[in-house]
Specification:
Function (chains A, B): Catalyzes the first step of diphthamide biosynthesis, i.e. the transfer of the 3-amino-3-carboxypropyl group from S-adenosyl-L-methionine (SAM) to the C2 position of the imidazole ring of the target histidine residue in translation elongation factor 2 (EF-2).
Distance between the termini of chain A: 34 Å
CATH topology of the largest domain in chain A: Rossmann fold
Strand content of chain A: 15-25%
Helix content of chain A: 25-40%
Strand order of the largest sheet of chain A: 2-1-3-4-14
Number of helices of chain A: 12
Shape of chain A: globular
Keywords (chains A, B): 4Fe-4S, Iron, Iron-sulfur, Metal-binding, S-adenosyl-L-methionine, Transferase
Oligomer: homodimer
Catalytic activity (chains A, B): L-histidyl-[translation elongation factor 2] + S-adenosyl-L-methionine = 2-[(3S)-amino-3-carboxypropyl]-L-histidyl-[translation elongation factor 2] + S-methyl-5'-thioadenosine + H(+)
Number of domains of chain A: 3
CATH class of the largest domain in chain A: Alpha Beta
Largest interface: A-B, 40 and 40 residues
Order of helices and strands of chain A: HEHEHEEHHEHEEHEEHEHEHEHEHE
CATH architecture of the largest domain in chain A: 3-Layer(aba) Sandwich
Cofactor (chains A, B): [4Fe-4S] cluster
CATH superfamily of the largest domain in chain A: Diphthamide synthesis DPH1/DPH2 domain 2
Largest sheet of chain A: 5 strands, mixed
Family (chains A, B): Belongs to the DPH1/DPH2 family.
Chain lengths: 345, 345
């Protein structure tokens, strides 16, 4: 399912005169990371594997690489995110080998319910197939829009769990291609438009609108649970792409202005277990928006996003998803192995 | 149980002209950390609390403090360890308020079994009571030795889970004052002398020799389980005082010289869960020696210390504890609030 371009990686490392490299991998590519480490070692480059679980390009191990005396970092599984890196970093996104057209053909009658003008979005795994999908849909008579997205994503049409900028185009409805619930629910919430998710592995099509409604009801329940809270822990993450210190400080200030107590907590992997023992009535997570949502069952205290807190404090009426907005993207990333250098190089 | 010298801390922070500080705390002092943060904020110093679980001075959050724009770090609960810090750091050890003499008096008949010349050791919690205990025992007719220890510890007579240098003095037996099993077992293993552990909270006295034997049998079982292993993951930690990169590379080299496959893994909080999915037959943990021992039940693969690996490879016959040795200690640390500056200041 995953193509590893080990020779291309080796060449890039040799250009950089790399003696020692750190390899970072998501859960699903651990064997590939081991294979790559072995291959590079056979070719004279000392290779260390990061054992820390990695969830995204928002968490590059460039600081660790530098500390370990590595000349470079290899980040497997995700495309580049604009971050100030400390060592040259090679991003190798994982592209799925699955026929997206087959799943689209199977669900034409559902897709037609979206309207004539549809916005097409996906995750990085299927990004290479997006133009093929566009052509197929155009042949079926649709007007297909692929949003450019902002600087937090790498490619037109790409959405992240924290960024749906590419979905925000003039369209009657949104077609999401990919697996999982979190991304398409985010699309539905961020665009407030009819959203159909097509899973290219299973061939299933799911309308996200009902899911999004159910989901919002759950979030309102969290907000209600926090109504009597007096002491808030406001949490941000030391992961480079999740460190929203300015936003966290704004939230602390906001809480204090509303007569609440608030303290700023900073941690790497945000989880309730590590917070047990602190004396807070509720938490606001200002980091990855998935954390207070995906993991909510494990929290014994109410846990909100900054926008949900604004509802709690009466500063906002409508539910809004906590997106992390990027700057303007100057140009798209190359599709495959992609070397990024620190600014100083 | 814990005295917090918040005014002294405030003064030191003001001397440093601190605008923003990060506070790091072990599990048991979370409320104190919150209290301190609140006190400092009332006095005009923005205070962030680290939510990452902290186990020792080997894991200072100085890098994180720097990244967060903090002028200083407060490390609660542990005494200073010689490390190259990146921001001025205030160490505030936790001293227990418990009567150690009462527990000693109660167990005189057991203590006498140690012999006439005894070495006295403890953890930082009871270090302030060590001289009182020495005097008491001398009045009871003992010749009491308190080892100076090396540069990894801060005080004479102090032992850590990874360093028993203060126990290595001429003596018939060792008297350990403190709670828990890990430290006194380490003392027994590192000194190979009769070791009596007196818990000042419960008043219990436990001979560690049988415990140590049972413990060694368990470790031999781990070694045996790894006999057929071909592929080894050699793990070190990015925690500043646990990063034993030289030793880890030595272990990788050793394994390769013995015809095994070996790869170097680096991670922050070492735990088996994060390693699941890698294709290794066994692991060697070259970081905190407690990790492969305390947590062994959670590992589905054999996990060894570097010295246990040497036994496996036939390079060592006797069991030896994996200590982390320090350099020479120039002078003892002050007993209370203790400011350490980066070398560059």
């Amino acid at each position: 399912m995953y193509e590893l371009h080990e020779r291309e990686v080796l060449e890039k490392l040799r250009e950089l005169d790399t003696k020692r490299v750190l390899i970072q991998t998501p859960e699903g590519l651990k064997r590939e990371a081991q294979f790559l480490a072995e291959f590079l070692e056979e070719n004279g480059i000392e290779s260390l594997i990061s054992g820390d679980i990695n969830y995204g390009a928002c968490d590059p191990a460039d600081r660790e690489a530098k500390m370990l005396g590595c000349d470079a970092l290899i980040h497997l599984g995700h495309s580049y995110m604009v971050l100030n890196l400390e060592v040259p970093t090679i991003f190798i996104p994982a592209f799925a080998k699955v026929d997206v057209i087959k799943a689209l053909s199977k669900n034409m009658s559902e897709i037609r319910k979206l309207g004539k003008r549809i916005a097409l979005v996906t995750t990085v795994q299927h990004i290479k197939d997006l133009n093929k999908a566009k052509e197929f849909l155009e042949n079926e008579g649709f007007e297909v829009r692929i949003g450019r997205g902002d600087g937090r994503v790498s490619f037109p049409g790409q959405v992240l769990g924290c960024n749906f900028s590419a979905a925000k185009v003039e369209a009657d409805g949104i077609l999401f291609i990919g697996a999982g619930y979190f991304h398409p629910i985010g699309v539905a919430l961020a665009t407030k438009k009819p959203t159909l998710a097509i899973n290219p592995y299973s061939g299933d099509a799911i309308w996200m609108d009902k899911e999004a409604e159910r989901w919002i009801r759950k979030r309102w329940a969290q907000i209600a649970k926090a109504y009597d809270a007096e002491k808030f822990g406001v949490i941000t993450s030391t992961k480079k792409g999740q460190l929203r210190l300015g936003e966290a400080r704004r939230v602390v200030k906001l809480l204090k202005e509303h007569g609440k107590k608030a303290q700023l907590i900073v941690m790497n992997h945000i989880n309730y277990q590590a917070l047990e023992g602190f004396d807070f009535d509720a938490y606001v997570v200002v980091a990855c928006p998935r954390v207070p949502i995906d993991d909510v069952e494990n929290w014994r205290k109410p846990v909100l996003t900054p926008r949900e807190l604004e509802i709690l404090l009466g500063l906002r009426e409508d539910y809004e998803f906590d997106e992390i907005i990027g700057g303007k993207r100057e140009r798209d990333e190359p599709m495959g192995v992609n070397l990024k250098l620190p600014k100083s190089l």
